[in-house]
Protein: small monomeric GTPase
Organism: Maylandia zebra
Amino acid sequence: ICLQTILVGDSGVGKTSLLVQFDQGKFIAGSFTSTVGIGFTVMFAYHVSVCFVTQIWDTAGQERFRSVTHAYYRDAQALLLLYDITSKPSFDNIRAWLTEIHEHAQKDVVIMLLGNKSDMAAERVVKTEDGEKLAKEYGVPFMETSAKTGVNVDLAFQAIGKELKHRATQQPNEPKFQIHDYIESQKHKTGCCGP
Ligand SMILES: Nc1nc2c(ncn2[C@@H]2O[C@H](COP(=O)(O)OP(=O)(O)OP(=O)(O)O)[C@@H](O)[C@H]2O)c(=O)[nH]1
């Protein structure tokens, strides 16, 4: 099976880096060519026999491409919302993304909030608790990731893969897969001990 996923978030939060880390297990330092407009990158990554077809979007040109993006939302099975823990504006914009997602995405879309660049402790301006609070408010799973060190990167995709696989094969009297519990049991808290 192939899962349609979309990575959204402000320019520079690390969407491309995260996907490269997941796909190839490596971090390419330095800046990438900025994503222009929408639906720019489609990357394939295989993990536990699930293939992820991922598009990367950022806010650039959002107004101009509005009607196009709405069409893309409808096909998405999972949306990964990224902010950068060293950028308050990128965090503040998450609400706007969530509002838009709730208006246009499928009702059962899997949404996950990711606070990226968790390795940059000295530059942090968004507290872990703030990310947790926002995620709770919207009822979405949350974790902090680092595209640089790889912390929690696989887990984010793995949790989505498990959730969607489970839904597809779920028996009527089988207990539902609890994505929140799964993530809590697997995730590495950053700041102290690393992966
Ligand atoms: N230290 C650190 N740097 C990161 C991390 N993720 C991304 N970066 C750096 O942040 C910059 C932006 O990363 P990108 O992956 O290009 O961000 P993007 O969200 O794809 O940006 P656009 O293509 O403009 O939308 C690059 O210089 C990366 O090397 C991370 O987890 N830790």
Observations:
- The beta strands are 2-8, 41-47, 50-56, 78-84, 110-116, 142-144.
- The pocket of guanosine-5'-triphosphate is lined by residues 11-17, 29-32, 34-35, 58, 116-117, 119-120, 146-148 (CB under 6 Å).
- The first strand starts at residue 2 and ends at 8.
- Residues 114 and 143 are 5 Å apart (CA to CA).
